[in-house]
Amino acid sequence: MSAPPSIDYAILATDIKAWARELGFADVGISGTDLGNDEAYLERWLADGHHGEMEYMSRHGTRRSRPAELEPGTLRVVSVRMDYIPPGTANAWEVINDGDKAYVARYALGRDYHKVMRNRLQKLAARIGERIGDFGYRAYVDSAPVLEKALARNAGLGWIGKHTVVINKRAGSYFFLGELYTDLPLPVDEPATAHCGSCRRCIDICPTQAIVAPYRLDARKCISYLTIELKGSIPEELRAPIGNRIFGCDDCQLICPWNKFAQEATEPDFAPRHSLDGPKLVDLFAWTEAEFLSRTEGMAIRRTGYEGWLRNLAVGLGNAPTSTEILTALEARADDPSDVVREHVAWARAQHALRSSS
């Protein structure tokens, strides 16, 4: 990549930020590519095995922490964020506290954000190209080995909280991140400073105690990892703490004081589909594979796969209050073709048997 000559990059940076907001991004910032401290942290995290079965976290080596190795010629990273909680979404705590309902992480209720944001980033790049001509860039939204949280912090979009999620003083943490790697020598913004102080609410509330120390997450215990990334059986000792969380977990964000400033999404595509902001566990457990594929088309939920979907729901049903409806639903899948589903259904039925005998 080679940057075009004779450009006022300060003016261009101001214009890029204005264009990004016109495209629906809530905020935008620009950073350099030095992530040395974050690289050291990543290496320690991997050495401790905290990535679990996410082998891709270690497969890419230093390309994750050295942007110019991932995209040669990269000088700057334009980081953007987009709020994702749509207006009118069912109250999260009310759903979590209703054992008959299924909880889906709020980011996954609507259309897959990867597609929405990548399309907007491509439009932003096109707008830059219209102004200055050809330039080198690459858009990323969870699509490559990128340390997006560190880059967002360096671009001033927020600090990385003790739960390892980016927090913005004016908008909490319910937002997606995306990046535009570029060879343009744009002026950089001031990094965000941390404001967690002595608060440890996120650490204390984690159902599985996955936040093993401030700023240190053991993914192997994290409900988001267990219900999405992990294939096969969920460790038995972690099933009860999962409760009714069938796809991801928001507890550490829900308890965060900074989310009193959270902003509602302006993107209609993030609105809940199929009433997934508070559905009944038994209703979702009755979906056929064809129904699952149809109803999750274009959604992040598709990532867990049908087998993982039923596995997670079986855990939720095992943790639910005993009722004839739930026992009947579990019995109907006792002979499921999947070994994993059968195992978790058997566990769920055993939980109800234990409760009825005590």
TrEMBL record:
Q: What positions does the entry give for cob(II)alamin binding?
A: R64, D142, V166, L177, S224, C249, D250
Instruction: Report the leader peptide range.
Output: none
The catalysed reaction is: epoxyqueuosine(34) in tRNA + AH2 = queuosine(34) in tRNA + A + H2O
Q: What is this protein called?
A: Epoxyqueuosine reductase
Gene (UniProt): queG
Q: In which residues is [4Fe-4S] cluster 2 bound?
A: C206, C222, C249, C252
Q: Principal localization?
A: cytoplasm
Q: Which residues form the active site?
A: D142
Main role? Answer: Catalyzes the conversion of epoxyqueuosine (oQ) to queuosine (Q), which is a hypermodified base found in the wobble positions of tRNA(Asp), tRNA(Asn), tRNA(His) and tRNA(Tyr).
This entry carries the following GO cellular component terms, namely:
cytoplasm
Q: In which pathway does it act?
A: tRNA modification; tRNA-queuosine biosynthesis
Q: Which GO terms describe its molecular function?
A: 4 iron, 4 sulfur cluster binding; cobalamin binding; epoxyqueuosine reductase activity; metal ion binding
